[in-house]
Design a protein that fits this description.
QueA-like, six-stranded antiparallel beta barrel, globular
Length: 341
């Protein structure tokens, strides 16, 4: 299977540079994965597709202001760091630009010295391990110095940082938002709950894999970067009950999907677990847990479009994406939504 099989042509002007005025007023494309039929809705209409006894699974990770700018103590040139994974003893795995200025042993200053660091190692993917030194609480310093790590295709400034967080975000640790959930409001979630739908949460901290393109010609040759997840017993028990009673499991986003499929037994039973997953889902994969998927419109040739193609079929997805282009849907992180049912 070739990576180029997942290419589609997208006019640059359809890449959303800002969120919709109201979260729930984003457009919603509904794709029937069996027939390929497409419907055009508004996101708040999604409530019409749930029935009593279904389950909605959300990723409650919260994006940290993970982009930091510092300088070496011997030169004035600015160096950009993107915090990816927190390791032990105030060490972080990071992406660095320009990397040639961040050699092992380099000492760094951030924010007039309220935060300092030292490059102590390189990663296999070309990143750096940095150890930070500070007085006080790291999260408070990061909130003061850091910037929200918006994807490179978003060039306009985001006025309200909370619009790059889901309304249910809770556990800090992501380098990017689980964007499929950006369309939900507290009111809409309450309406879904009142319909008799179980709402549960998993956690997956979005890391390096989001920023890494697929460079391999063959899909099978691509390796995913591991990301940390948590699924507690309450969530596992509710999902298992819903499945056993014949209800549908609605997964919100590829991050939630990858987490659920990582912790499921062959028979679809969810186990409470925490750890690291590098699961790579592409056509040919047999889903064990999820029935329906709520997601955004993804980059061509990305692991994300491969995952949704595994669920709905590559031809159905590419046809739906071409319709979305013709209908001028808004694409990528801050854009519109798709329900695969």
């Amino acid at each position: 299977m070739k990576t180029q099989d997942f290419y589609y042509d997208l006019p640059k002007e359809l890449i959303a540079q800002h969120p919709s005025q109201k979260r729930e007023e984003s457009r919603l494309m509904v794709l029937d994965k069996k027939t390929g039929e497409v419907e055009h809705k508004i996101f708040k209409n999604i409530i019409d597709y749930f029935k009593k006894g279904d389950c909605l699974v959300l990723n409650d990770t919260r994006v940290i202001p993970a982009r930091l700018y510092g300088q070496r103590d011997d030169i004035r040139e600015k160096i950009e760091f993107l915090l990816l994974n927190r390791l032990e003893d105030d060490k972080w795995e990071t992406l660095v630009k320009p990397g040639k200025k961040a050699k092992i042993g380099s000492k760094l200053i951030f924010g007039d010295g309220i935060l300092k660091g030292e490059i102590i190692d390189k990663t296999d993917s070309g990143g750096r391990i940095i150890k930070f030194y500070y007085e006080g609480i790291f999260e408070e310093i990061l909130d003061k110095l850091g910037e929200m790590p918006l994807p490179p295709y978003i060039t306009e400034k985001l006025e309200d940082k909370e619009r790059y967080q889901t309304v249910y975000s809770k556990k800090e640790g992501s380098a990017a938002a689980p964007t499929a959930g950006l369309h939900f409001t507290h009111e809409l979630l309450e309406q879904i709950k009142n319909k008799g739908v179980e709402i549960v949460y998993i956690t997956l901290h979005v890391g390096l894999g989001t920023f890494r393109p697929v460079k391999a010609e063959s899909v099978e040759d691509h390796s995913m970067h591991a990301e940390y997840y948590e699924v507690d017993k309450k969530t596992a028990d509710i999902i298992n009950k819903v499945k056993n009673n014949g209800g549908n499991v609605y997964s919100v986003g590829t991050t939630t999907t990858r987490t659920l499929e990582s912790v499921a037994e062959i028979d679809g039973t969810i186990l409470p677990k925490s750890g690291w997953t590098d699961i790579f889902i592409y056509p040919g994969y047999k889903f064990k847990v999820i029935d329906k998927l709520i997601t955004n419109f993804h980059l061509p040739e990305s692991t994300l479009i491969m995952l949704i193609s595994a669920l709905a079929g590559r031809e159905n997805i590419l046809r739906a994406y071409n319709i979305a282009v013709d209908e001028k849907y808004r694409f990528y992180s801050l854009g519109d939504s798709m329900l695969i049912k």
